[in-house]
Amino acid sequence: MKNVFLFFLLCGFISSCATSEVTPTGVKVVTQSEYERILEKYTTSSIKYQGLYNTLQVEGTLVTTTMAQAQLEQTARLYIWDQPKMDEEKKKSQELSAKQTTVFVSFYTPERKNDNLHKNMTMWKLFLDVDGKRYEGKASKIKLLFSEVQAIYPYHNRFSTPYNIVFPIPVKDIESKTIRFTVTGSVDNAVLEFTPPALQP
User: φ, ψ for residue 183 (rounded to 5)?
Assistant: First the structure.
């Protein structure tokens, strides 16, 4: 009886520590809890105030190779992709990351007219600093339903606008280094520092 009890206890422990699961279509993906753990490692935020008033709030995720794979698996789990679809999307992701680095940003500033990172005449500048070099980014507004964005970035809220910021440097060239992402303009500025998991406490 004791051995039976220990067996079930061990099974419960293993299942509680599971980091992956298999979709109904047979695709192996990360669990929700594991996805959130990975996301946390590549996400940081900054909130700026003038007196009691919030002038700027930026939450961002550096889409590294690991983060991109986790996002693919999260999406595959949510939409029950089959393996050919998973392989197709993975190939697209790898092709993009070989040319660029992406930072997802959930951006809030109280004046709606200033929420325009993606426009040509925006006041904002977007920089990525790594290894003494600076890269200027280009923003695109994400045109998905709120629920779709939040499924991948749970910290995103209805008061903020989702953007992808793209920088002309392959992600593999910089993902193992400490990176500073800056949003700066006449309203205020925010700096997000991304530290590789291996260097995190």
Answer: -115, 120
Written as one string, the DSSP assignment of 86-134 is: HHHHHHHHHHHHTT-EEEEEEEE-SSGGG--TTSTT-S-EEEEEETTEE
The H or E element containing residue 3 is helix 2-16
pLDDT in tens, 108-133: 999 999 999 999 999 999 999 999 99
Q: How many helices (H) and strands (E) does the chain have?
A: 5, 11
Query: What CATH architecture applies to the domain 18-199?
Result: Sandwich (2.60)
Provide the whole-model pTM. 0.88
CB 161, CB 108: distance < 8 Å: yes
In the numeric block, the tokens 């500048």 are attached to 125
For the chain, the structural domain boundaries read 18-199
- Structure confidence at residue 17 as a pLDDT band (50, 70, 90): low
Distance, in Å, from the CA atom of 57 to the CA atom of 21, rounded to the nearest integer, reads 35
